[in-house]
Design goal:
- The chain is mainly α.
- The longest helix has 18 residues.
- The mean pLDDT is 85.
- The radius of gyration is 21 Å and the shape is elongated.
């Protein structure tokens, strides 16, 4: 009879291959044999998340944290689900906890930066994107997106030269990131406006952006 570890390992293989229903079945078998193994719940939660069974995924992350409150990845994954459902306060709590447990968690800094960007807290967004870049300089897709998002923050703050530099870096790292080309073009046009007209436009832009968050 296969052990819990063997079922778990088979589940990981199916999860990696995106055979999600099979992965869930193997993780469930592993849980029946070893119900106090927190990592199984985390991975089954990942499988449910990819199946878009969000509530069940959250239940699995909750169970994992009940069994092991020091699992940074469970806080991070649950935070992502909260963020995706516009529960920003709950997401922020989970990202904070993930970073507290693992201060080198680059993805958590990156997503926390995106959350701060959404909330209009631009300085905190830049701080978190910078930390994500510092910790994770080798992951090109995430790095391109981090430059793009930081460029967006600089854009909203009116730091147009910094915004353009970040958009260009994002395009260099990921030439398929078309939104970076589009927004860079807009920023370059705005930069050519007379100063008074430019500042008026940027103030109006920030006001509309912040109203859209309410």
């Amino acid at each position: 009879m296969p052990s819990a570890k063997e079922h778990f390992e088979e589940g990981l293989k199916r999860l990696q291959a995106r055979r999600l229903e099979e992965a869930i079945a193997f993780f469930t078998k592993a849980i029946k044999l070893k119900p106090n193994f927190a990592e199984i719940y985390v991975n089954r939660g990942d499988a449910y998340q990819r199946c878009n069974d969000i509530e069940i995924a959250i239940e699995d992350y909750n169970k994992a944290l009940e069994l092991n409150p020091n699992l940074a990845v469970a806080y991070y994954n649950r935070g992502n689900l909260y963020f995706g459902r516009d529960k920003c306060d709950l997401a922020l709590v989970d990202y904070n906890k993930a970073i507290e447990l693992n201060p080198n968690y680059a993805d958590a800094y990156y997503n926390r930066g995106s959350l701060y960007l959404l909330k209009g807290e631009y300085d905190l967004a830049i701080e978190n994107y910078n930390k994500a870049r510092e910790l994770n300089s080798n992951l090109d897709p995430n790095l391109a997106r981090a430059h793009y998002n930081r460029g967006k923050v600089y854009y909203h703050k009116g730091n147009l030269d910094f915004a353009i530099a970040d958009y260009h870096k994002a395009m260099e790292l990921d030439p398929t990131l078309l939104i970076a080309y589009y927004e860079c073009g807009i920023v370059m046009l705005i930069r050519e406006m007379p100063k008074r007209e430019r500042m008026k436009f940027l103030r109006s832009l920030r006001q509309h952006y912040l109203r859209s968050l309410r």
